[in-house]
TrEMBL record:
InterPro entries: AMP-bd_C_sf, AMP-dep_synth/lig_dom, ANL_N_sf, ApeI-like, HotDog_dom_sf. It comes from Corallococcus exercitus. Residues 118-302 form the AMP-dependent synthetase/ligase domain. This is AMP-binding protein. CDD domains: FabA_FabZ. It comes from the Bacteria. Residues 461-557 form the ApeI dehydratase-like domain.
Amino acid sequence: MAEPLALEHLLAHGRPSGHTVARCEDGMRDFGALRARVAGWRAAFAAHGGQRYALFTEDTFDFATALLGAWHAGACVYLPADARPATLDALKAHVDGFAGRAPQGLTALTPAMGGTAPAFEPLSPGLAALVVYTSGSSGEPTAIPKRLSQLSSEVATLGALFDAEAGDVPVLATVSHQHIYGLLFRVLWPLTSGRPFDAHALPYPEDILAALQAGPGLLVASPAHLKRLPATLDWASVRGNLRGLFSSGGPLTPEALQACRDLLGRAPVEVYGSSETGGVAWRRRDTDDSASWRTMPGVEVRADEDALRVRSPHLPADDWFTTEDRARPVPGGFELLGRRDRLLKLEEKRVSLSAMERTLVAGGLLREARVLPLTEGHRVILAVVGVPDAEGWRLQESGGRRSLSQALREKLAPHFESSALPRRFRYLEAMPVNSQGKSTEAALAALFDPKRPPFRVLERSGERALLEVEVPANSPYFDGHFPGSPILPGVVQVEWALLLGREHFALPPDFLRLETLKFQQVITPGTQLTVELTWAKESGRLGFKLTSAAGSHASGRIVLGGAVG
């Protein structure tokens, strides 16, 4: 193995010029090429002036040289997670220039070429080296500054923990270097340990397989990639070449963990941390699915009132940092108990539900919006409950519900990852509230119950609601009832009346009986129903009538009892 070097002394001490640093699509890059490229970037930053630069580029070798060039020019690098126009535009007020991609109207810096590179001095541990962005509990993007000493301490910790086992094989990655996990594991740790890295990411399972078929490697991945490993690929042929496997950025599902064991022949080293804290703990669940987290060297943890608190050299100060996770201490580490706030890890990207709600309202079409996670099968998606404004209702009336939903997704697209965009939408005249005037997540989630039909409120009072109800052609209730001539079962019509009644009135919990039930004519797929609901609190009777342009379909009364919660 190569000699480990501290980040501060990487270029001042140096390595042999022919030492391989990166594997690019057009060939290898050695330490001599790295040194020359860093010198070019250093000259470009110095000539431009200023101390703060945003950096975004897909090629990891280019990224590494620009990052080191900025640091050796005494500059701080701001690290956007993506190159969306809204993301880069938001940085204009905070930086003196852009390296790599730049917003429209601005020129991105490029490295100076040629000439003799002057010597490199050691970097100062106190250098304001990096600013990454994450969402705080308020949902507003929060800048997280990092001194060089924090980053240097963390990569030294990674080396102490994992260098011996990983050896000197190249680092392969599915994750971006624009995020703190990818930056540390894909760029800084390989550079300081002398381990080469691939300059291009491996976004698909087929890419991972091909890279490992070409030779040994250490894979830096995310749960989103590990849970999508197809069993149809020949993973057995590359198990011997997979010398290390890492996962971070979110919880690894039991299915993903078992897939790693079965297909790749090993469990990943899971790393727990955040942009704020840096690395905190790690575990490898070879056989024990419930293994607790082991704190990293130099890191202290404690749980106060169910909140995990961290003190670490990876933090900017020697104070205790309170995370947004709940935890229980165990000998040598802790067990995680879930999140404390409304931030959500979706596809291993942190999404602020509050920020998405504000963006939806600020973009027009909605007066109010609530975003909530829904579980569909083994995945989590986002759903929106919205109260449209006049323009929003006009768009739905002219183009249908799908047109309004697509318009809202387009307004979110410049600000959020495509994988985080909402997939389900419900539109109401007003948010459902409980007796305290709160819209509970349970009440909002009930709007997406597959048994509940889409509807719009036409009129509503304390004792009466008139609804326009869509009977979806793809409703599962039409399956098998009847083949070739589907109709909506009568029991479903009664259930819909009760579901919609509970949404608009504070009904007692217990179903007692039906009265005066009548079915006049069948309801077929695509029917637009008018549903009239009346609630007689004194007698506990919910009346309902279902009509359409074809006439009356059903009517009756549902008698309810029990205490109202």
